[in-house]
UniProtKB/TrEMBL annotation:
Domain of life: Eukaryota
Protein's UniProt name: Acyl_transf_3 domain-containing protein
Pfam families attached to this UniProt entry: Acyl_transf_3, NRF
Membrane-spanning ranges: 210-229, 273-295, 316-337, 357-378, 428-448, 455-475, 508-525, 537-555, 575-595, 616-634, 646-668
UniProt-recorded Gene Ontology molecular function terms: acyltransferase activity, transferring groups other than amino-acyl groups
Region (Disordered): 690-788
Key words, A-Z: Membrane, Signal, Transmembrane, Transmembrane helix
Region forming the signal peptide: 1-18
Sequence ranges assigned to domain Acyltransferase in this UniProt record: 270-662
Nose resistant-to-fluoxetine protein N-terminal domain: residues covered: 95-179
Length: 788
């Protein structure tokens, strides 16, 4: 039996293993009709073996190389000897070669059409012949097959719908040899699309790869040296010159600061730590669910699972991103206007606005850039990924398009440019959030003029974005939500790439939760207490489940691949984020002002603090943790549902992600942040020349003690009455803590003569969940650090 039996399989189950399950969402297969109309041929198809496929090869084709033809003939001869009952070492080796190839297995009606082989067994085949020196070695490969349509053009133009078969054949055969051998045996039903050889897949290492490795090794070595010095040097020695600078790289200091659990203080927004960590876990759950469905051997069962209510848990994980947008806008307003209230002139100075952007760029980019460089030039070029049998046959651009797209990430425009072949898919968020931050003065400046003007501008932007969202969905017949496997309107004139480029990624489409968070942050920044009656508190919490219902129920049938009318789709897309933003906003508001009850106690758990601090680096690294975890599986698995996915994928990936994030942050994020803060404080030093004056009496410090000037020194009061103390600090006997602006937000710590002492460990607050804001006082918002 030759390719005719294989052709029937290809015809009956043509939507085969795909990198995108959306290709299967419109497919309905009736098992009864298949058995009724094709029972006899189907029976023969089940009995089609790998031996039949090998025997169909044209080993005598003159266009095939002599070595390949000879080895193929040897294999066919071994098959003949097996049938006749002969046994020797050669036949046993060839049995291993044949056994390593994939075979049609169970679950064909569930779209299990990737016939997987065993790479290790194949590569172990090596047989030597007496009559020649060259051995016959096995090489692992994958056939990519399709079927011919009425015009006999095949379907190879769409690799997403091709049929895959793992095989083990002689290493002497090139891609050209095997293409000729298989192609010449093609029937009128089948078509050979491609032959993927594992040996041909090699990483493209270049000078960029070595620069990346050198930089990462250099920083790691610096961390090792700093850690040794941190252990061996005394506390006094660490304060001297370069020793202090080097100690900033100590992994002991940085990890201890990351994992420190401090007692929550009044006036802090401690709840954001828990919200941030839980949202990050939700994102990982969504990604792990997608990948487990993607790699399932029973695709039809996976698609059937979409019709269950429990799928809404991972399906709604896209709202976790809106949670972070809300927090970014909230903390930007909450912290910026606190600084503005202290010193309006400094807050709106040119230097402050320059630092508003400069600090964010240098605070955010180093850890992110290293992730992009590592994934682009090192990890995606490694044999671990390139030669994985699971991804053999997957286009290189699907595994990583970063080698040609990485520069868009560095410019923070990858959410709008090159979306079709986007580099490091999850990084679109960082670009969108950066663009919202760049546009933040549009929100900030109107509030400086007056509260009514600021609120009016914010409301105008909200309404404009909502109307634009509604019109875009309605005119182009777009889906209500970015769930990949929901029902797709056949009359829509937008591709998936167009939807992501102009609907899902753009800052003007994602600004709703950001603006709502900004308004709430402005409202809360100067109000320490708000009194609410019991009915208001009850109503606020009662609306939480109402909002959950509002964001989940309207699209439930659409998620289950049922059609949804155009008007409800447009209304949901335009208004659903308001409901979600209310939920997050009410939790933050009620817990901050003491109306959170058990929710407040849960989110105030000190253990959330280190997990929240790690969320930024966890987001950065979790994608290649997911990819690496998949590489541990050489075969597809059976998809059973949410519980299996959570236990086998989500929990291990979350654990590995946060463990890696500890070291990524301690090596590539915190040290650079400390150096950046140190340089900023040095740049802000303004030495003054004072005339010599008679010694002054000792001045009282704020804690009631008396601080004496150093022996032989002279104290010169400043215009504010402040004097330098013995330890170099500036004492303010008649005023509260003096504030100095680093860019858009103040630090309320005592200004120290030695700027190095102003560089705290890593407890500085950030004005968005991706580490956008400069230092703020520990007393104010230490617990509200948002560093996704």
């Amino acid at each position: 039996m030759s390719f005719s039996s294989l052709a029937l399989l290809v015809i009956l189950w043509q939507p085969v293993v795909s990198l995108d399950l959306r290709k299967f969402t419109d497919l309905e297969i009736s098992r009864h009709e298949i058995w009724k109309e094709n029972a006899e041929e189907l029976y023969h198809s089940f009995n089609f073996t790998l031996i039949d496929l090998i025997q169909s090869l044209d080993a005598n084709n003159s266009q095939i190389s002599a070595e390949c033809g000879a080895d193929l003939w040897k294999i066919q001869l071994a098959i003949y000897h097996m049938v006749t009952g002969q046994q020797d070492d050669f036949i046993l080796d060839m049995m291993s070669l044949i056994d390593a190839g994939g075979k049609p297995g169970a679950g064909l009606l569930q779209f299990n059409l990737h016939f997987e082989g065993y790479k290790g067994e194949c590569e172990a085949v090596e047989h030597y012949f007496h009559e020649r020196e060259r051995p016959l070695k096995g090489q692992f490969l994958k056939l990519e097959l399709s079927y011919l349509d009425a015009n006999r053009t095949g379907r190879c133009a769409n690799p997403q719908q091709n049929f895959l078969w793992d095989m083990c054949l002689p290493e002497s055969c090139s891609r050209r040899d095997l293409t000729i051998a298989f192609g010449s045996s093609k029937t009128s039903f089948t078509h050979l699309c491609n032959v993927h050889l594992l040996n041909e897949r090699t990483g493209n290492w270049n000078y960029q790869s070595y620069i990346t490795l050198f930089y990462m090794t250099f920083l790691t070595g610096l961390v090792v040296i700093a850690s040794v010095l941190d252990v061996t040097l005394s506390s006094e020695s660490k304060e001297v010159g370069g020793a202090y600078f080097i100690s900033s790289f100590s992994i002991f200091q940085n990890v201890s600061e990351l994992l420190a659990v401090k007692k929550n203080k009044a006036g802090q927004i401690n709840q954001l730590h828990g919200i941030r960590f839980l949202s990050m876990c939700w994102i990982i759950m969504g990604h792990s669910m997608s990948t487990s469905m993607l790699l399932s051997a029973n695709l039809k069962d996976a698609l059937e699972y979409i019709k269950k209510w429990t799928v809404m848990i991972p399906a709604l994980s896209y709202y976790a991103v809106d949670t972070f947008f809300f927090q970014s806008g909230f903390l930007l307003a909450f912290l910026w206007f606190k600084g503005y209230d202290r010193n309006p002139k400094a807050a709106t100075s040119v230097s402050s606005w320059v630092m508003f952007y400069v600090h964010r760029f240098f605070r955010l980019s180093p850890a992110y850039y290293i992730v992009i460089a590592f994934y682009t030039f090192v990890y995606s070029q490694s044999d671990l990924l390139v030669k994985s049998p699971l991804f053999l046959g997957t286009p290189a651009t699907t595994l990583s398009s970063c080698p040609t797209q990485w520069h868009y990430n560095l410019l923070y425009v990858n959410n709008l440019v090159g979306v079709k072949n986007a580099c490091y898919l999850i990084s679109w968020y960082l670009a969108t959030d950066m663009q919202l931050y760049i546009a933040a003065p549009v929100l900030i400046l109107p509030y400086i003029l007056s509260k009514p003007i600021g609120f009016f501008v914010s409301l105008l932007l909200l309404i404009g974005g909502t109307v634009f969202n509604f019109i875009t969905v309605y005119l182009h017949r777009l889906p209500p939500y970015n769930f990949d496997y929901g029902w797709q309107d056949p009359e829509s004139d937008w591709s998936r790439v167009a939807y992501e480029t102009w609907m899902y990624n753009p800052p003007w489409m994602r600004a709703q939760p950001y603006i709502i968070g900004f308004i709430l942050g402005y409202f809360m920044h100067d109000k320490l207490r708000i009194r609410l009656n019991k009915f208001s508190v009850f109503l606020g919490w009662f609306l939480i489940p109402v909002c959950v219902f509002a964001v989940s129920y309207p699209i439930r049938d659409w998620v289950a691949q049922q059609p949804m009318a155009l008007l409800p789709r447009a209304l949901y897309s335009a208004l659903a984020r308001y409901a979600w933003s209310y939920m997050i906003g009410w939790i933050v508001f009620s817990c901050y002002y003491g109306y959170g009850g058990p929710v407040n106690r849960f989110l105030n758990w000190p253990g959330w603090v280190p997990l929240g601090k790690l969320s930024y680096c966890a987001y950065l690294v979790h994608l290649f943790v997911v990819v690496h975890y998949l590489l541990l599986f050489h075969h597809k698995m059976v998809f059973l549902g949410l519980t299996q996915t959570f236990l086998l994928f989500t929990l291990p990936i979350i654990t590995a992600t946060y463990l890696l994030a500890i070291f990524w942050s301690a090596i590539f994020e915190i040290p650079i942040a400390k150096v950046e803060a140190y340089c900023i404080k040095l740049a802000l030093r303004r030495p003054r020349n004072h005339p010599v004056a008679p010694p002054e009496e000792p001045q009282p410090a704020r804690n009631g003690s008396v601080r004496h000037p150093p022996n032989g020194s002279v104290i010169h009061p400043s215009r504010t009455g402040s004097v330098p103390a013995r330890n170099g600090s500036i004492i303010h006997p008649q005023s509260p803590k003096h504030s100095i602006r680093l860019n858009d937000k103040p630090t309320s710590s005592l200004i120290e003569q030695d700027p190095r002492k102003s560089v705290s460990g890593f407890d500085e607050n950030k004005a968005s969940f991706i580490a956008s804001a400069p230092d703020v006082s520990e007393e104010e918002t230490e617990g509200s650090s948002i560093r996704f």
